[in-house]
Amino acid sequence: MSTIINFVSNLLQGKSLNVHLNDVFKFNGGIHPPQHKSESTLRPIGKLPLPEKLTLPLRQHVGNIPKIKVQVGDYVLKGQMLAEAEGTVSAAIHAPTSGTVSAIDEQIIPHPSGLPDLCISLIPDGNETWGELRPLDWRNTDKKELVNKLRASGIVGLGGATFPTHIKLRSNGTSNVHTLIINAAECEPYITCDDMLMRERADDVVKGIAIVQHILGAKKSIIGIEDNKEEAMAAMANACIRAELDTITVKVVPTLYPSGDARRLIHLLLGTEIPSDKRSTDVGIQVFNVATVLAIYRYFEFGEPSISRIVTMTGNVVNPQNFEVLFGTPLMSLVKATGAAKADTTHFIMGGPMMGFDLPNTQVPITKAANCIIAAAPNLFTAPPPAMPCIRCARCADACPVNLQPQELYWFSKSNNFESARDYNLFDCIECGCCTYVCPSNIPLVQYYRYAKSEIIAADKATSAADLARERNDFRLARIEREKLERAQKHAERAQLAKESKSDLMLGDSIVVASADTETPSTDQALDKKAIIAAAIERAKATKLAAAEAGVTPKNIENVSASVQADINTIDHIREQAALAEIAKTPTN
Amino acid sequence: MNRSPYIVDAPSVTSIMFKVLLALLPGIAAYVWVYGGGILVTLTLATITAVAAEAALLKLRQRPVKPYLFDMSAVVTAWLLALALPPIAPWWLIVVGTFFAIVIAKQLYGGLGYNPFNPAMVGYAVLLISFPLIMTKWPAPLSLAQAPLSFLDQLHYIFSQALPSDIKVDAITSATPLDYLKTQLMLKHEVAAIREAPVFGVMGATGGEVVTGAYLLGGLYLLQQRIITWHLPTAFLAALGLISLGFYISNPLQFADPLFHLMSGASMLCAFFIITDPVSGPTTPRGKLYFAAGIGILTYLIRVYGGYPDGVAFAVLLMNMCVPLIDATTQPRVFGHHKS
Question: Does A446 contact B5 at a Cβ distance shorter than 8 Å?
């Protein structure tokens, strides 16, 4: 409370504490949904008792599944790597506590599909024995080395995107990033994990920012915070002063969903519009979530890999609160820590109410993407009435932060006119849900866009697969043709050679010449073929005979009627003919 | 399952339509005050016809009747049409017009959200072409009529076309100012002299300008409620005002001043209630400006040079045809894209 008073009085006295207020570059649209943030900020960040079992999905990040390094029955220490990053875009998984690997199998994971995926299960031994921790003097270490080390940290973007962090810090020697933006907007309702983190751990966050700024070689850092988080704002501004880092500033942006979207935030803070087909780094800007930089700090300062995160547990629970949760903790443990879910709770949502999804059950583990869990109840999230036709009121277009025309995209998506949807920039849609939020006809617009996107992606994949197949086929045909030509050439050469040798013989041995005289090369070939055919018939007969002797007969032909037997005979005959024709076609060499 | 967002905050289609009806009430009240209660009869007739036709067609098209009927869009269409028709028009005229608007112009195109043309204006155009004589027979304001009809007389007249024995038709009707202006100009009179006639009020028509003002009031309410955006009314009124100003400056003897055009005929009803039909209009902000400006200009040209007393209906329908083109060519620049 005193920080707020300090902050406000400083503001009134004109001491702006490195805080810039509202001189922002606005984007189109956006919405003001009810915040519901105060409920979960009444209590400090809590800790959970160690759960009986941790379930660690291998797929907790964007990119390749990491390679498992342990076996069932292995005893592992806290912080020990269980799976290592595989390929470029991937992240490691570490043991959140010490214990025994009890299973490596498929479990239901917190994903919109609700499908099972490979997980490592860990039974804690309760000792919390740390493995060897290797802090790093980041100031005196080569930047490439730092990035390589981060690859083993398991740190991914904790704002929800879960993109492996080391990829974002790779610079290929010459980084051209001049500005680092720290995303602390936290614009979705209900979610307060970043807010609480900043209030309680501001100094460590600032240290983390300094590290990231150093690795990127950025000249300045801007912390973007929505103006509904006064306490966090003040804490961050004070931390910047304490750290005596004048390259880091706090900039306040108005509370407007979705200001936390990276491209929107960059525009708000700098007025820079990242071109649709480029990344922010192409124009020298990189964005990190506030929790991610804290994780980076802890990794370099203490050697702690990514084994836990702060999760907001809110909604229809007795005491909404933020908790520091070990990855793999079952959702139920988190719910219990808040007291309980109220009686009318229907299910749980992961993420915020604008972009989150239904969790399949209460046993799913907390993962790196889980910034918020909301207990849902009918009175919190009323089911929308049935959708009515679009009346083209264009409220969605007014609300769209990307300045798309959602009503046109809806029309195209609904009528499977995917080409037009693409032309109207469907793939610029960030699925923020603003359009659905304001739709008088209750049309689930975002679902239509997700459907159209997946259809287009699938069609593109099919097209490229077909292209590949066609290329292969063309290549195969070309190869066959080439081989044919080569064979013909070889044949001609051989024939030439034979001719020459015959003429040689003619000179030397008259007997051979006499016999050779009666046989032209063509009759030679014909005789060859005849012999082969005869041999094939013999072989077939022999096979049949052998089969008959061995008592092997085709099934179900004992008691067939005369007509069916006649059919079989006809078919057999045709087959035989076909086989003969095939042999006749085969080049004699 | 990913069915986010879980929260919505939008007025329902029903509440939007309801607010449009609410915004029409001041205009209707003024109408009753100026022309008598007959309009209430035609409004009721149109409403009943619209609801019945909508329900029947929904049933025929095997669509759920209740949700679509309660979206109130049929009632809005009915009211707009009734307000555009002469207030003592015969009952069958109302029924035929409304029926045509709902059945042909709306439901046969797929119902709410799918009609390319403004249903009320389709109904109006059909009536104007089919029954031009009745459609131009407007009652004089009660204050100017030689024999003002009572509500019961008006009711009687709507259903039987019979007047009390001592009153003749000419005694209750008069030319509208737009009509009067046009015919008098053809007789080589000058605007200033023509406007001495009692049908002309301070700005528009005697009485009529009160109704127009009441529409403006309702329109401002719609703006305040964010049911409509500023683009359409502003562009329409600006275009109509500017083109009439241009003509007026070029020859004030031949052309009426802008204020007269803005306050006459269906200008205000058009600006805030008719062209703001979202379904048959464009959706992009720039498209809305072009669309409304086009209607404003066409309205003026039809008024001045066309054969009809007011140009709104045809102007709206003509511009409705251009909507797909307007929408396609006025797409705003998407975030992160260059101007194409």
Answer: yes
The CATH architecture of the domain made up of A1-30+134-303 is 3-Layer(aba) Sandwich (3.40)
Q: Where are the domains of chain B?
A: 11-174, 175-328
| Domain ranges, ordered by start, for chain A | 1-30+134-303, 395-457, 461-585
First and final CA of chain B: distance in angstroms?
37
pLDDT at B272 over 60: yes
List of residues 6+ apart from B59 with CB closer than 8 A: B65
Q: How far is B7 from chain A (nearest CA, A)?
A: 6
> ipTM, 2 decimals?
0.89
Residues of B whose CB is below 8 A from A395: 10
CB within 8 Å of A461: residues ≥ 6 apart: none
Q: DSSP class of residue A317?
A: B
Distance from CA of B30 to the nearest CA of A (A): 29
Give Cα separations from B136 to A266, B176, B194 (angstroms). Answer: 61, 8, 19
Contacts of A52 (CB under 8 A, 6+ apart): A123, A124
Q: Element (H or E) spanning A107, and its range?
A: strand A99-108
The pTM score is 0.81
Q: Which two tokens stand for residue A478?
A: 């070309």
The total number of residues written for chain B in this structure = 340
User: Count of CB contacts below 8 A, A vs B?
Assistant: 138
Residue A9 CA: distances (Å) to CA of A3, A15, A255, B302: 10, 9, 22, 65
Segment A389-414 mean pLDDT: 94
pLDDT(B124) > 60? yes
The b-or-e profile of A69-97 (16+ CB within 10 A means b, else e) is: ebeeebebbbbbbbbbbbeeebbbbbbbb
The tens digit of pLDDT for each residue in B203-221 reads: 777 778 899 999 999 999 9
> What is the SS3 assignment for B15?
helix
Q: Are A315 and A381 in contact (CB under 8 A)?
A: no
Beta-carbon separation of A428 and B5 below 8 A: no
How many angstroms separate the CA atoms of A332 and A365, rounded?
9
- What DSSP element (H or E) covers A388? none
pLDDT surpasses 70 at A512: no
What's the rounded Cα separation, in Å, for the pair A139 and A428? 39
Nearest C-alpha in B relative to A32: B9
Mean pLDDT (whole number) for B7-14: 90
Question: How do residues A183-192 score in pLDDT, each as one tens digit?
Answer: 999 999 999 9
